[in-house]
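Lab notebook, bench 4. We co-purified these components, and the gel suggests they stay together. Before we commit to crystallization screens, I want a quick structural picture of the whole thing.
Request: model the full complex, all chains together.
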Amino acid sequence: MTIREQIQEIIDREPVALFMKGTPDRVMCGNSDRALRALWAAGAPVTGVDILPDPLIREELSALSGWPTIPQVFIKGELIGGADICEELYSSGELQQKLDEALGTEREQMVKTAAVQA
Amino acid sequence: MSTESIRVLLAQAFPDAVEIGVEDRTGGGDHFQVTVTSPSFDGLPLIEQHRLVNAALAARLADGTIHELRIRTKGTG
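Here is the predicted assembly.
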């Protein structure tokens, strides 16, 4: 699969995909950390995808999403935004609401990592 | 890149803005916090508001001049 196909598959497959610098257990950027914390606080299951292994991953992701910066958060295939939006939606309660609607209130919370093979 | 040149780009994109704030977060000219209050945002979901700001600064984001961009948008409605 091409890089873009792999990215699309992760977006389609994972309940909550967080494209980030580093991985959830080894976050390499303050903004990725902010998004991760907001998601976790809102009770989201999180699949972290590291974009650092190859510049093409970020390039293809931004081409696909139309969003220029990292991190990028997708819930059930829908782009939610970056760290600022995650924090703002968390503060207003809308992030939890979005998660409840998309994944149900009984969702299991866990953190995992998915990789794009460059 | 200076805060003033970012302010100019935002002012061009949002001529009706009632507030445009630009802060250089690290003093290095590549980490910015921008705040825009404009009727252009009224009724738009947050993600679409941020898309408009990203679009205004697209060239600088694409060429890496802006390394980090934090965005705060507000409508006037």
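The helical segments of chain B are 3-13, 46-56, 58-62. Worth comparing against the SEC data before the next meeting. The beta strands of chain B are 19-24, 31-37, 68-74.
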